[in-house]
Design a protein that fits this description.
- The protein is mostly helical and about 290 residues long.
- Helix content is about 85%, strand content about 0%.
- It has twelve helices and no strands.
- Helix 4 packs parallel to helix 7 and helix 4 runs antiparallel to helix 9.
- The longest helix has about 35 residues.
- The radius of gyration is 23 Å and the shape is flat.
- It starts with a helix and ends with a helix.
Length: about 290
């Protein structure tokens, strides 16, 4: 036991010292800075896994309570077909479809709300009310309405992603200053021209903020919705089933796949944000 704990302590102190040294350095080469920016969180993540492994073995924690990372990795590599089928059902069908529909509808309705003061004063309070509804109460209703397949999970994801996009887009469309709007009016610009050339570019940071928030909400919503009824496939179905069978390593394997998929999805949205809002001070400051 002592050997595992001592190794964990030494590894943690070494990794901490290395990261402290890296973050305090000033590298002139942009490629080196990018490598360091990737290396720091990578070292931190590996350190957590090593400490996790050592603590499990050092304190002889039962695998049903907390399996070691090596055990979870073994389950991952031996259950690739099952994990891939669950990933396809939950992420490729439910999450991506619901994400696209929810964000797209939220953006379209935000444009209509911006044109109508009545909708702005009447719909947004209702949106805040609906966004506060508990997901565990909405999911069973969607299953009864749309069936047990992925369509009901799409409905849950749409509800979860619609209002964050609506609220953020409406707020972003009002981000342009009055002076900038007056300048567009002096150019005799129409409402659509002002929207496309001024107000929408100013709203992009708010829109991408909603897209990043929704990238995680969509995955959580789809997985939780599968707890209330689904075909014999899907991340949520697998988690609830394997917990009942005490196959905790499989549960952690599904969690790892979900975490990886959510992180990659979030990263892709963040990269798209940097490409679209390259003019924004936060992006230009990060590239300096």
């Amino acid at each position: 036991m002592n050997g595992y704990l001592v190794f964990a302590l030494v590894f943690w102190l070494s990794a901490w010292g290395l990261n402290e040294w890296l973050v305090r350095q000033t590298f002139k080469d942009r490629a080196v800075r990018r490598i360091v920016n990737i290396a720091v969180p990578l070292i931190f993540g590996v350190t957590l896994l090593v400490i996790w492994e050592c603590l499990v073995h050092g304190f002889s924690i039962p695998s049903i309570l907390l399996p070691a990372p090596s055990m979870i990795w073994a389950r991952l590599t031996s259950s690739v077909p099952t994990l891939w089928a669950d990933f396809q059902q939950t992420f490729l069908k439910s999450v991506l479809t619901g994400y696209a529909l929810g964000c797209g509808l939220g953006f379209a309705v935000a444009i209509l709300v911006d044109r109508s003061p009545f909708l702005q004063k009447g719909l947004l309070p209702i949106g805040n009310f609906v966004s506060a509804l508990p997901m565990v109460g909405v999911a069973p209703i969607m299953v009864m309405w749309f069936g047990f397949d992925w369509q009901s999970k799409v409905a849950v994801v749409v509800i979860m992603t619609f209002f964050p996009m609506l609220v953020n887009t409406v707020q972003g469309l009002s981000a342009a200053s009055h002076m900038e709007r007056d300048l567009m009016r002096t150019y005799a610009a129409s409402w659509w021209q002002t929207l496309v050339k001024l107000r929408l570019p100013a709203a992009w940071p708010f829109i991408f903020n909603a897209l990043k928030i929704n990238s995680t909400l969509a995955l959580i919503g789809a997985i939780v919705a599968e707890f209330f009824g689904t075909p014999i496939v899907g991340m949520g179905f697998r988690i609830s089933t394997e917990v009942g069978r005490s196959n905790v390593d499989m549960v952690w394997a599904e969690i790892a796949v979900a975490a990886l998929a959510g992180s990659v999805f979030y990263g892709l949205v963040a990269l798209a944000e940097r490409a679209v809002t390259f003019w924004h001070p936060s992006v230009r400051g990060g590239q300096a």
